Amino acid sequence: MLHEAELFVMSETVLVEVVGRVCAGHWDIVLPPLFEIPGFDEPPTVRQAVDRYALEQAWVPDLLAGRRMEEVGPDRFDGDLIGDDAHGQVKRLSGVACDAAAAAADGNAIVHAPYGDVTTRDYLWRLTFARTFTAHDIAFGLGTTACPLTEEFARAALAAVEPEASRWRTLGIFREPLPLPECHVSWRDQFLRLAGRDPHPGHH
């Protein structure tokens, strides 16, 4: 399996678990903007964030197979994809997408993403960042005091993306890095601070 696919699957596991914590009264909680990119630079509600994830997730198998949205039908996945069983539907969509990622053999194959043609590796990274930040934001929006990311994931992700952090920043996916405290810093905090995300929002 491609390393990028492995990290994508790890990020999926975290997000699916976090969505499982969402109850009826949580859907209107407002989260921070996901990226500094038009369409992703406004604060979404939890419901909007999960709906956006579900739509993006539904497209993963087709896009990893090299298909274009126009070929498949741009409105194929329009409508409510999560219904009254958000966790169950998210688990289903995640499983299908993870299977597709695991089957991707060529990291340089072109994916015809909605934002332009990119390599499979690039596409998987963008998905991984979206899932990572969404899981983190929802968890803290629900009132957790602990970052949901695993140290195993964060250490591997940090090692892989640190050399290209400036590129992700230029693309609007990372923000300006946050300074590291002088005390011991976990891999989770290092990864999130590199991406310009507060590892512990509201807990200072």
What does this protein look like?
- The protein has about 200 residues and is mainly alpha-helical.
- Helix content is about 50%, strand content about 5%.
- It has 8 helices and 2 strands.
- A two-stranded antiparallel ribbon has the order 1-2.
- Strand 1 and strand 2 (about 115-120) form a beta hairpin.
- Helix 1 packs antiparallel against helix 4, helix 1 (about 5-20) runs parallel beside helix 5 and helix 6 crosses helix 8 (about 185-195).
- The model has no long low-confidence stretch (mean pLDDT about 95).
What's the short story on this structure?
This protein has helices spanning 3-19, 46-64, 69-72, 86-103, 120-141, 151-161, 165-170, 187-194; strands at 110-113, 116-119. The protein is mainly α and 204 residues long.
